[in-house]
Design goal:
With 139 residues, the protein is an alpha+beta fold. It has helices at residues 10-14, 18-26, 42-48, 58-65, 80-88, 101-105, 120-130; strands at 2-8, 31-38, 70-77, 114-116. The protein is 39% helix and 19% strand. The two termini are 12 Å apart. The structure holds adenosine-3',5'-cyclic-monophosphate. Adenosine-3',5'-cyclic-monophosphate binds next to loops. Adenosine-3',5'-cyclic-monophosphate (CMP) binds at residues 57, 61, 91, 109-110, 112, 115.
């Protein structure tokens, strides 16, 4: 069993894709064990994406992520990290496989509707960025 953090980004929320993203994850064996809607401020978005500080897209990415509400969720299941990433597709929707969430719905490499943790250590730190132990409900 593995856990990961996923975010329906502000573009995904405004495109009414919250249900579609959750359905895709749930129908592929993942369980939602934590869920909330948040609106990150600029500082929170900068903190979340701190590993990208200094990159050319950091300013624009953190502006975008603080431009509206997002839905953050903790997913649990076998190989939750790789499964989530497979269902999302590549960061750049142009490079994402046919049928993936980003290929189907994302506008561009930045506004790519959904985020998923990329490794167990990242997942643990990203989950604790948004959720405390009392907000996670493993069955
Ligand atoms: P995500 O999976 O949330 O991880 C980092 C995010 O940075 C990524 O999705 C995109 O939203 C954004 N990103 C990554 N690479 C680029 C890029 N080259 N240009 C703009 N945004 C990017």
């Amino acid at each position: 069993m593995e856990r990961t953090l996923s975010i329906v980004k502000p573009d995904g929320v405004s495109k009414k894709l919250i249900g579609e993203v959750i359905k895709r994850f749930e129908s592929h064996g993942l369980r939602v064990i934590g869920l909330k809607m948040i609106w990150m401020n600029k500082k929170e978005a900068e903190g979340f994406y701190a590993v990208h500080r200094g990159k050319s897209f950091y300013e624009s990415l953190t502006n975008f992520m603080s431009s509206g509400p997002s839905v953050v969720m903790v997913l649990e299941g076998e190989n939750a990290i790789s499964k989530t990433r497979e269902l999302m597709g590549a960061t750049d929707p142009k490079k994402a496989e046919e049928g993936t969430l980003r290929r189907q719905y994302a506008s561009n490499i930045e506004q790519n509707i959904v985020h998923g943790s990329d490794a167990p250590e990242t997942a643990a730190s990203e989950i604790s960025y948004f959720f405390n132990a009392l907000e996670i409900f493993p069955l």
